[in-house]
Structure formats: C-alpha cells, structure tokens
C-alpha cells in the first residue's frame, strides 16, 4: 500500500488491473479510466495470471484547482469509471510519451480533465461572465502566430489574463479551446497548400506542425480522413 499527494489518473490497456482502494478491491478492465484521489492509500497488481498493461499520470491538485477556481476537489468514490466524458478528457494526457504536447495543448488537456472530473463527480457548476476582450485578443494573437508554437506566457502577456481564466473565456465566446482553435487554423493552411501542390512534409512544416506525422494525426482526427485521402477526394470533387 502507498499513497500520493497528487491525483493518479490512468487507463487500463490490457488485462485486468486490480487494486485495493477505500477498503475494497477494485478491478479495471481495458478502456476503463482510473481516478485515485490525492492521499488515498492504494496498491496495484494483476487481476489474472495474464498480467496487465496500463498508463498513468500524476496531476497536482493545484493544477485542477487553477481551473475550478476555489471549488472543492472532485472525488470519484469507486476509483474506476467507464464514463465517456473522462475517457475523452484523458485521451491527450495519456498518449504515449513519444508524442510530446505543445504548451497550449497541455493546458487545454488539463482544463478538459478538471472540467470532466467536476462533472462526473457532480460538483456544482460555477458560472462566469467571462472577458470577451481578452478572448478576442487571444484569437487575434493565435491568428497572427498560428504557424509556430505559442506559449502560455505569450498569451497571458497579449491578453492581460491568466491562462486558466483565458481558457474559460475562449471556450465561452468561441466554442472551443485556444489550442484546438490554433490547430484548426494550421489545418486550414495545410489544406490550402495541398490543393496548391505542396508536399505533405512541406505543408506540415510551413503550417507549424512538428513534422508530417504530427500533422497527419491531427488531420485524421479532425476530418476523419488522412491528408492524402482528403486530397484525392477534394481533387475529384473539383473535377466534377
């Protein structure tokens, strides 16, 4: 048995992941999300002879609190959940370590996680009027700098708003997060360049993606097609 002063949040990838938590034995199956509250004793072992695989991240409560702004820390009683909101909210943070996150991408993912934890735990919502001018300044800054990595410090300096409040502002007034908005502008640029005859690698680099595979992951996730397949369809539509 051991404990952390952080949230331990993970996903079982294969097998049965068993652990003692709050006086009961819990079993997590592939695809389940594990949420262990700070300072709760637990252990961990394989639930069958076949063993198991999992990924886990450790999130400081202060990061969750920065998003929730003074609400009580969310608590999930059972330690294991199949709730699709948490599965979606943890997908980015639980990616393989070979896929590094940009600063804005990590901030967005932490915001998604905190909001999902609060929603699944039934925490009462806190409504904010938001700051439209800050959100608009952020949008203008992202447009002007969409082909490079934008840091959180830069957004704070450009808007005069702290990163967590700004994230809420942006979602309130533009319906998406700053990083997803930035990614869509990059993908718009990629599509225009591909139609103009640029190669996949050139388009990815010019649009600000780390490399072609980075661009392809975002393109396929957003449009449901690989860039090459999308280009063939787009050219066929143009001919028709």
UniProtKB/TrEMBL annotation:
- Keyword hit for Transmembrane helix: no
PROSITE patterns from the UniProt entry: HTH_ARAC_FAMILY_2
Task: Write out the GO MF terms.
Answer: DNA-binding transcription factor activity; sequence-specific DNA binding
Q: Which UniProt keywords apply?
A: DNA-binding, Plasmid, Transcription, Transcription regulation
Transmembrane ranges?
A: none
Tell me which residues make up the HTH araC/xylS-type domain: 136-233
The question of whether DNA-binding is a record keyword is answered with yes
Gene3D superfamilies per the UniProt record, alphabetical: Homeodomain-like
UniProt xrefs under Pfam families: AraC_binding (PF02311), HTH_18 (PF12833)
Q: What PANTHER family does the database record attribute to this sequence?
A: HTH-TYPE TRANSCRIPTIONAL ACTIVATOR RHAS-RELATED, TRANSCRIPTIONAL REGULATORY PROTEIN
Protein name, entry field = AraC-type DNA-binding protein
Organism (species): Cupriavidus neocaledonicus
């Amino acid at each position: 048995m051991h404990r952390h002063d952080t949230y331990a949040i993970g996903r079982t990838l294969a097998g049965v992941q068993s652990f003692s938590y709050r006086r009961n034995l819990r079993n997590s199956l592939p695809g389940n999300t594990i949420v262990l509250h700070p300072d709760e004793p637990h252990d961990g072992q394989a639930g069958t002879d076949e063993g198991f695989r999992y990924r886990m991240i450790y999130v400081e409560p202060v990061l969750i609190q920065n998003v929730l702004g003074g609400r009580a820390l969310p608590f999930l009683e059972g330690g294991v959940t199949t709730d699709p909101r948490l599965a979606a909210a943890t997908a980015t943070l639980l990616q393989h370590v070979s896929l590094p996150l940009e600063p804005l991408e990590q901030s967005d993912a932490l915001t998604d996680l905190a909001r999902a934890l609060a929603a699944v735990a039934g925490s009462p919502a806190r409504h904010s009027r938001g700051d439209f001018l800050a959100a608009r300044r952020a949008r203008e800054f992202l447009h002007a700098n969409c082909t490079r990595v934008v840091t959180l410090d830069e957004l704070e300096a450009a808007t005069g708003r702290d990163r967590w409040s700004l994230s809420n502002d942006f979602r309130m007034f533009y319906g998406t997060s700053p990083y997803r908005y930035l990614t869509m502008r990059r993908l718009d640029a990629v599509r225009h360049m591909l139609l103009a005859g640029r190669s996949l690698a050139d388009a990815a680099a010019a649009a600000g993606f780390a490399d072609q595979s980075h661009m392809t992951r975002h393109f396929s996730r957003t449009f449901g097609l690989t860039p090459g397949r999308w280009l063939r369809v787009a050219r066929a539509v143009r001919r028709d």
